[in-house]
Amino acid sequence: MPTHDELIRLCAGRWQIPLLALASAGDGLRFAEAVRRLGLARGVARASFDALIEGGWLARNPGHGHPLRPEYVLTPEGRAAGPWCEAVMRARDALGLAPDALTRWSLPLLVVLGDGEARFGTLAERLAPVSPRALSLTLKAALAEALVTRALQDSFPPVAVYALTGRGGRLVEAATGR
Predict the structure, then answer these.
(1) What is the pTM of this model?
(2) How far is Cα 44 from Cα 35, in angstroms, rounded to an integer?
(3) What is the mean pLDDT of the chain?
(4) Does residue 157 have a cis bond before it (omega within 30 degrees)?
């Protein structure tokens, strides 16, 4: 499992985890194949590949030139992260979540909630540098996908507490291995 900082870097682009999972499953990846299999626009795919190269997970294949050789290969860091990405994608598929159903902060949010319920302020602290707006939108998306619940504590003023659902717990199990 990646560290907290690596998780945030991996989730920085919506398509990085799906691309790494594809590259891991096939010992490399061709650009056109990734565009076709994930239904990406070429510009989005290019930016995602560039981010994975910059992050040190993918490298351009120096032996590329033959039609059957992949254009991109996994680096040692990519080989370490690849099986984790595959497990996360299998869990997403099992839950019926599209690869683009989760936002940048969804997986880090779910991992943090895997430690127990939390209030908005606590989530913001643990997910720094997330902005309040991004956290709010991520919580709304996770609520809509039934990955998180929101309960109001009976106090004055009322306090919202967020917790994982069973669906969210399955995704956290895949992400954390616990």
Answers:
(1) 0.87
(2) 9
(3) 90
(4) yes
